[in-house]
Every structure is written in structure tokens, then in C-alpha cells.
Amino acid sequence: MTDDQLAETLAAIRPADPTALGAARDRQNRLTKPHGALGVLEEVSIRLAGLAGTCPPPDPSPAAVAVFAADHGVHAQGVSPWPQEVTAQMIANFLAGGAAVNVLARQNGAAVVVVDAGVVTPLDAMVPEGARVPDASTIEPGGRPRLVERVVRRGSDDISVRPAMTREQALEGLTHGITIAGELVGAGYRCLVAGDMGIANTTASAALIAAFTGTDPAEVTGLGTGIDDAAHRHKIGVVRVALARRAAEADSDGTGDDPIAELASLGGLEHAQIAGFILGAAAHRVPIVLDGVISGASTLVAAALAPDVVDACVAGHRSAEPGHAVALKHLGLTPLVDLELRLGEGSGAVLALPLVRSAVAVLREMATFDAAGVTEKSS
Ligand SMILES: Cc1cc2ncn([C@H]3O[C@H](COP(=O)(O)O)[C@@H](O)[C@H]3O)c2cc1C
Ligand SMILES: O=C(O)c1cccnc1
């Protein structure tokens, strides 16, 4: 069942439409500005035209941010200075509207849905009355944040000791993410944002990025929520141990070329759902704005399953985590802003939403030289 849904989604992901891409490039060059003067905004508008298959593309609005939350067994290795229960406490904060992503989403007109993908701490007493909804199709623009429960298991295993989850659990997570993207698109959202919450998830992200890009753990493992030098060295060592364990596992079971096995072994429950969410958005040809190192790592998984998924992605920002830049380079994506953020939750992506809309508005609304009667340069 889940295999079928994944196969169907992967089959639906197609490259950018070359005719719409060409039309958007041509139109950008006829707008009343020097060629290329709007820089990366031009690239974004062309990318979204290719995704929509029409030039100009539709306004990427309204937007919805799905914050996927889960806990990580590798937390036991002392890779984060924060206690694990902060993951659940932050879910309560998201639902009460008090987290950074809530403030930024309110300001930028994005709806927020929180997904429990596998948090260890029981949420019951922390969830406000009426906040739980059965699925994401009822999330309203301008409405209060809601919680959707898609718990595959309560917390992943410690990746430095054993696989984070089984292949079936990784598949189940991917499928939930695909389904949630479909529900939001069905509800009328025309731009999706993937956010994350999970204490210790920068460790699993570093492991995925090292594995998918072949980069040394020292280059992709960062300070996360803020650790000192000794803890950082230890964290790099933990990622190294996880990669060595995975390499031995792949040697013995022959899964070295299987992105789902890689995800199951080194990732987290939220990485699985975020990767599915990205695949789902791409299958529906709706833009997906990426946040920091967690969504970067998840996009590597998605791109290994369906390389054309990248044509649906916009890199909202570049996080201070070093692995993020490595992931973006591997994917060929240029981040829109670099504000030295290192938060996650979808915060950097939500900040970039006005820029994504501006990119499209320019292509839709600017006058051409012909229409405005402006003389073009002579050579
Ligand atoms: C209060 C608080 C709010 C957060 N919001 C996002 N994160 C971010 O930090 C965590 C990853 O960093 P590490 O791997 O170092 O634990 C994730 O939960 C991520 O979403 C937060 C972390 C904290 C402490
Ligand atoms: O890159 C991110 O999004 C990030 C960085 C540090 C901690 N949590 C998330």
C-alpha cells in the first residue's frame, strides 16, 4: 500500500516544463530593466514557471508551513545541550502561537500545521482544546495552528548504535508526508513550507548529508542549538560512528544504493515525513520552500528517489549549520537569504515567502519594453 503510493508519487514527478521555462526567460528579457538586473528573483520566477508549466506562473499563495516534530535516540549520546522533552514542549508552544515560526507565519500570511511524527514525551496534557485535527485538509489560512498526529513510532533509535528505524517505518513516514502535502494542496494552498522540531536532529541531518554527498562528517556537523568545542568534537565523532555502522550494514545487506535504507538507518522520523512532503509538493507541481539543515538533508533523500524534485524546490535561506551549504550545493540550489539563522521550525523559509511572491509578481506585472514604449539598449 505505502509502496504503491510512493511509486505513484515518484512517477508523477516530472522535470520543469521546457516551453514555460523558455517563455519565462524570454519574458524576463523583455521586461523594462537591464537583462538579469533582478538577479536571483528572475531565476525563481523562471523556476516557478517551469514548475507550473505556464508563463507567468500563478501567485504562490496562500502558503502553509508544516512543522514535522520527532525525537531522536542519538540524543542519548550528548549531542545537544537541550533535554528531549523540549521537542514536546515546543509543540505546545507552536499550538499556542508563541514560537518564532508562528510570529513569522502570522506576519507573512502562512498557515501552520504541526505534525507529531514521533515525539517521545506524551503530548496529551499539553495540547490545547480543539487543536487536534484528523488531517491537514481543514487547515485554514489565517486560522489557529493545528496538530495532526502521524506517529510512526515514539522516537527513533540511536543512529550511532543501530538503524534509526526499519525500512517499513521510513516508508510509512514518507507516505504520511506525501499525504499531508496532498491534503494541503487539496485545501487550496499554493506554496508549501517544510519546518522541523526535534532535539538532536542536527546530528541525524549531518549524518544524512555526509552519506548522500560523500562529505567528511567534520565538514557537515555544526553547533546545532549551541555546543562548545569539546561537545562539537564529540558530535563529529558520533556522526562518524553512525556512518561507519551504516557502511558495514550496507556492505552486509547490499542496500548501499537504496536511499530509503539510508534514510531508515541515519535519519529521523521527521526527516522521513519532510522528504515525503517535498515529494508530494513536487508531484502536485506546487513550490516547496526549504528551510535549514533538516529540510536540506531531507531534500537529499527526496532527490535520490526522484532527481526532478529539485525543480519544485526553492531554497528559502542558508542556515549557519555547515552541512546546509553542502546540501544546497549538491542540490544546485541558491539560498534566497542568509541572515545567519540557526533555528529551524521553517522560520528561514517563511521569511523568504515574500521574496518568492515578489519574484512571481515581477514576471506577472512588469511592463515589457514594447508595451511601455521604452527604448532597448542599442547593442
Ligand atoms: C527552545 C528551542 C526551540 C527550537 N526551535 C527549533 N529548534 C531547533 O533545534 C533543534 C536541533 O538542534 P540540536 O541538534 O542542537 O538539538 C531542533 O529541535 C530544531 O528544530 C529549537 C531548539 C530549542 C532548544
Ligand atoms: O539549520 C537549521 O534549520 C537548524 C540549525 C540549528 C538548529 N536547528 C535547526
TrEMBL record:
The biological pathway it contributes to is: Nucleoside biosynthesis; alpha-ribazole biosynthesis; alpha-ribazole from 5,6-dimethylbenzimidazole: step 1/2
* Catalytic residue positions: E345 (proton acceptor)
Top EC class for this record: transferase
Q: Which domain of life is it from?
A: Bacteria
Q: Which CDD domains match?
A: DMB-PRT_CobT
What stretches pass through the bilayer?
A: none
Tell me which Pfam families the record gives.
Answer: DBI_PRT (PF02277)
Question: Any keyword NADP?
Answer: no
Provide the E.C. number(s) assigned to this enzyme.
Answer: 2.4.2.21
| Protein keywords | Cobalamin biosynthesis, Glycosyltransferase, Transferase
* UniProt KW Transferase keyword: yes
List the catalysed reactions.
Answer: 5,6-dimethylbenzimidazole + nicotinate beta-D-ribonucleotide = alpha-ribazole 5'-phosphate + nicotinate + H(+)
The text of the family note is: Belongs to the CobT family.
Q: What does this protein do?
A: Catalyzes the synthesis of alpha-ribazole-5'-phosphate from nicotinate mononucleotide (NAMN) and 5,6-dimethylbenzimidazole (DMB).
For this entry, the protein name equals: Nicotinate-nucleotide--dimethylbenzimidazole phosphoribosyltransferase
